[in-house]
Amino acid sequence: MFKFLIALKSLLLAGLVATSLSAQAADDAIKVVYHMSEGIPQASRAINNIRNHLAADPKTKIVVVTHGLGIDFLLDGATNQMEQPFAGAIGELAAKGVEFRVCNNTLVSRKIDPARVAMEAKIVPSGVAEVARLQAREGFVYLRP
Known about the structure:
- The protein has helices at 2-27, 40-56, 87-95, 104-109, 127-138, and strands spanning 31-36, 61-66, 99-103, 121-124, 141-143.
- Helix 4 (104-109) links the parallel strand 3 and strand 4.
- The N and C termini lie far apart (60 Å).
- It is built from five helices and five strands.
- It has a single domain (29-143), classed as DsrEFH-like (Hypothetical Protein Ychn, Chain: A, 3-Layer(aba) Sandwich).
- By secondary structure, it is α/β, with parallel strands linked by helices.
- The longest helix is centred in the first third of the chain and has 26 residues, at 2-27.
- The chain has a five-stranded parallel sheet with strand order 4-3-2-1-5, with helices on both faces.
């Protein structure tokens, strides 16, 4: 009888843990880092991908990390291939919780005044280091549009 009670307790505990983990996983948002380094065409694709991503899963935590030519759409006055400003799309996505990060190394090497960076974006020391940090330390999934 004693062994039966121990086995029953073990089963109940295992069920409780499994239920708890399942509930926790359902509540946790998926975290995604979009890595951008290729310029305006990539930015246009990424904006569409992010809109579609959020439409499918509005709870997703998205961080866009840019370096190299990837920062261009986050600079004042940036437009897409059809001469439409990116500012509206950036504001729209930021209002939905999307974060934008710009590589300071790129700003320095390209001699770009940080004041030109969109107010929705945060400047980080290194874009590639930020991508690695988000993946290794914060569990972000990597996407490159």
